[in-house]
Amino acid sequence: MTLEHSHPDVAHEMAAHQRDISVSEFFLKNRHLLGFDSPSKASLTTVKEAVDNALDACEEAGLLPEIRVEVSNAGDGVLSVSVEDNGPGIVEEQLGRIFGKLLYGSKFHKLSQSRGQQGMGIAAAGMYAQLTTGKPLHVLSRVQGESTATELFVSINTAKNRPDIQGKKRVAWDHSHGTRVEAQIEGHYPRGRHSISTYLKQTAIANLHVTIHFRGPHGEQWDHECSCTDLPPRPVNVKPHPRGVELGQLIQMLNNTESRTLLRFLEKDFSRVGRKTARRIIRQADQNLTERSYPKRIAHRQSQALYRAIQTVPISGPRTDCIAPIGEQRLAEGLHIEFDASFYTVTTRPPAVYRGNPYQIEVGLAYGQAAGTHLELDEHGHIHKATRQRLNTTPELEHRADEPAYLLRFANRVPLLFDQEGCAITKAVMQTNWRSYGLEQAKGALPHAPLVILAHMASVWVPYTSEAKEAIAPYPEIVKEIRLGLQSCGRRLAAHLHHETRVSDEFDRRTHLEKYLPHIGVALQTILALSDDERERMIASLDNILHEKRRL
Fold first, then answer.
1. Which of 99-103, 171-175, 376-380, 464-468 has the highest mean pLDDT?
2. pTM attached to this predicted model
3. Are 298 and 345 in contact (CB under 8 A)?
4. Are 210 and 63 within 8 A, CB to CB?
5. DSSP notation for 407-427
6. How does DSSP classify residue 390?
7. Which position has the higher pLDDT, 223 or 32?
8. Mean pLDDT of the chain
């Protein structure tokens, strides 16, 4: 039916159906975007979001984090998930909004490294709980110095994206400070590489200062004690770098600034812009702009010229005290604690920039024989053949030499367990030519070796591929930085493998000589007319020469 023959009231009827969409309603219907697309994944995501919030809160308060995670069966496919921390607690007035409103938090507008970014994680877990079981989040929080804790039952009013508090009271709690959140969700207890236990153990690798206590629904439990008592350096909140600001954001900043002049605006509202640089930008922009131009009255055309000038005038790179990488020493310690191997290497790339945001890449490798596999020697001090065959296995990883390497991905100290194929880290590993470092690799695949590959990105704003924060977007500059880190570690691995090959070849040659020493002794006895005692001394002398060569 053509438009001219349509009913005249159709447009009015269509208009009557239009209405605002709450952000909560949107994510309620698209919960897969937040990582709640399956019962097993939802269980892990709930734990992840609560643990991330707990770690950020403890570190911001200068407290060594101690996290308790408990997962239990509540019957009929329902899991009870609780996460408790020893953080500073949350003031009563903020509890409802933090746990009962999407896009509410303190980290979105900050330019400093943190695990959370969008203010959706733990509130989204509560929304998933009320969607699948109808149960609100149960929150218990006590602030240092308060005599009692606040107990709160809260869900989300999805039509208005605001907290729906179903019960609140003050109660006694045997913790001087901290927060405990419990959610009853429709979920399955995941196992394997995507399990809650795997996530927590990988969290411990990147956060040696964290103590974790875990209790599972089938009686499993383990405790990880912190291996260092020094908190990571606290990232500094910085102002935006001019090169990271787009035109629309620049116009918004001009309208919202408290500065009375353009010169003052460029100096005070951006990082890395001094008076000399600000004046060069204004001169480059021209368009009748002066140092005393009033920012709120700058026209759109002048804003465009100012934006172009910012892109052309040389400006120092962004500050890097807003990010806090793990550090080579701690990264190596984390690999040693979790994986037994014969060779470890780590490297930290210099800070780099994408879209004006500073970031830093760290890479680590663990390869080969488990540390618990000791070299067994026979009575002559030679390596047993059976032991030598175990040199290239890592039993703890359940990997053989012909299986793909075990890849660990991190962003801001948080493990990334899903969407491995779409991640910048995976693409960088696959683009690296591991054959040049002595490993087997099919084209466009992970190397096949008893190898652990760890890569971490620290940034003020990690470019995740989705709100679920499961993978890093494969921007070319980020992939390149990761690949450079991998290549640096790969060269060290190649030197190690070359040394191991030399040792193995020497062992083979020595084994052949030792095998034929008695025959050589008999031949020399015949040729030189030696006695039996002289023959034995000759064989012993040759054997000593082999041992001397081995020590050299």
1. 171-175
2. 0.80
3. no
4. no
5. EEEEETTEE--S--TTSHHHH
6. T
7. 223
8. 84
Per the CB < 8 A criterion, the answer to whether 281 and 306 are in contact is: yes
Question: Which runs of consecutive H residues, i.e. helices, occur in 211-299?
Answer: 247-256, 262-268, 275-285
Element (H, E) at 337: helix 328-338
- Give yes or no for a contact between 512 and 522, defined as CB atoms under 8 angstroms apart: no
In sequence order, the 6+-apart residues with CB closer than 8 A to the CB of 406 are 397, 399, 451, 452, 453
| DSSP symbols for 4-64 | GGS-TTHHHHHHHH-----HHHHHHHTGGGGT-SSHHHHHHHHHHHHHHHHHHHHHHTT--
- Residue 178 — pLDDT band, cuts 50, 70, 90? very high
N-to-C CA span, the chain: 93
Measured distance CA(337)–CA(327) in Å, rounded: 15
Residues 6+ apart with CB under 8 A from 320: 351, 358, 360
Looking at per-residue confidence, does 388 or 118 come out higher? 118
Q: Strand pairing of 440-441 and 414-415?
A: unpaired
